[in-house]
């Protein structure tokens, strides 16, 4: 059975401070984009999870978040089967797009339905929390302001059908490394979330920010260059997503959107034309 597993972008992101559990409280606005993996999930008669992918960098051992999810699910329900999962990987890995978290969540939703597990919302939230901070967002899939570790949502007005250029130079950044090196907070996303919710996009484009850029740009210097190029080519907003290194550009003007893609598509390893969902 084929399932689409979408990527997310952070339309803004602030890290508020360290929690007692070693995670950080964040304040972020998240939205899906149409860039997605295609997961082919089929039950097998073993108790094993067999993972495979077209991407050689896709981990097929227990470090895969799909495996981690499956082990966490077994803490809540007895599972008397295994699954073969092939992932046609289109989302760049370790990119700030939460591809692994998306895969894990879509797998949970599939198994919950396939085996009629009838997991409660609280059980789903806890299984996702044990798997990774971004995982629970993919049960929601709307434009949300997320707080806590990133799994407490307030719904905002839809931000769908915006033209998005995704640029990634093929480098990878560990979220943990960025969190561990962050010093300052900007006091949260008050203005940004109000602007998005009231569809005041001029204010949103002006006020949007990602606190993690200050650390990630030191790890991958091209991030700031890509942002400049997106603005020079007409982006209304250019911002790093998550802990990076992916940078996205939002284009209200369709001709600028097309021109930007044509100018950048041969310059970087991953350049995608997509849209917000
Ligand atoms: C940067 C974001 O993409 C923004 O959406 C996410 O916060 C990243 O979430 P994620 O990659 O799912 O994070 P996890 O895989 O759960 O955690 C990886 C490491 O990142 C750090 N981490 C993650 C999320 C968070 N709210 N605070 C943290 O400090 C922790 O050191 C953790 O050990
Ligand atoms: N199903 C998966 N797909 C892609 N990467 C995975 C998966 N499972 C585990 N990983 C590993 O998890 C790490 C994070 O991968 P992912 O692509 O989710 O990063 P990310 O997009 O930066 O996530 P986030 O935005 O949450 O930080 C990588 O080291 C990758 O090897």
From TrEMBL:
Keywords: ATP-binding, Isoprene biosynthesis, Kinase, Nucleotide-binding, Transferase. Its EC number is 2.7.1.148. It catalyses: 4-CDP-2-C-methyl-D-erythritol + ATP = 4-CDP-2-C-methyl-D-erythritol 2-phosphate + ADP + H(+). SUPFAM superfamilies: GHMP Kinase, C-terminal domain, Ribosomal protein S5 domain 2-like. One of its GO terms (molecular function) is 4-(cytidine 5'-diphospho)-2-C-methyl-D-erythritol kinase activity. It is an enzyme of class 2 (transferase). The active site is at 8, 134. Pathway: Isoprenoid biosynthesis; isopentenyl diphosphate biosynthesis via DXP pathway; isopentenyl diphosphate from 1-deoxy-D-xylulose 5-phosphate: step 3/6. It comes from the Bacteria. Residues 195-269 form the GHMP kinase C-terminal domain. It holds the Pfam family GHMP_kinases_C. Residues 64-132 form the GHMP kinase N-terminal domain. ATP binds at residues 92-102. Catalyzes the phosphorylation of the position 2 hydroxy group of 4-diphosphocytidyl-2C-methyl-D-erythritol. Belongs to the GHMP kinase family. IspE subfamily. This is 4-diphosphocytidyl-2-C-methyl-D-erythritol kinase.
């Amino acid at each position: 059975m084929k399932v689409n597993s979408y990527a997310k972008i952070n339309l803004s992101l602030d890290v508020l401070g360290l929690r007692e559990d070693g995670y950080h409280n964040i304040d972020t606005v998240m939205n899906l984009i149409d860039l997605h993996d295609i997961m082919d999930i089929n039950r097998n008669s073993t108790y094993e999870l067999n993972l495979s992918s077209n991407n050689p960098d896709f981990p097929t051992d227990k470090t895969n978040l799909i495996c981690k999810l499956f082990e966490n699910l077994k803490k809540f329900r007895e599972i008397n089967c295994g699954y073969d999962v092939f992932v046609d990987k289109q989302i760049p890995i370790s990119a700030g797009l939460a591809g692994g978290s998306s895969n894990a969540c879509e797998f949970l939703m599939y198994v919950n339905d396939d085996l009629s597990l009838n997991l409660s919302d609280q059980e789903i939230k806890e299984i996702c929390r044990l798997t990774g901070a971004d995982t629970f967002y993919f049960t929601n899939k709307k434009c949300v302001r997320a707080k806590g570790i990133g799994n407490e949502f307030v719904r905002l007005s839809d931000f769908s059908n915006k033209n998005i250029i995704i640029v990634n130079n093929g480098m990878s950044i560990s979220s943990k490394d960025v969190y561990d090196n962050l010093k300052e907070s900007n006091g949260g996303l008050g203005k940004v979330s109000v602007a998005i919710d009231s569809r005041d996009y001029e204010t949103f484009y002006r006020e949007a920010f990602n606190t993690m850029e200050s650390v990630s740009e030191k790890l991958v210097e091209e991030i700031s260059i890509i942002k400049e190029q997106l603005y020079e080519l007409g982006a209304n907003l250019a911002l790093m997503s998550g802990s990076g290194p992916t940078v996205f550009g939002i284009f209200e003007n369709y001709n600028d959107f097309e021109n930007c893609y044509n100018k950048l598509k041969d310059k970087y390893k991953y350049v995608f034309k997509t849209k917000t969902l």
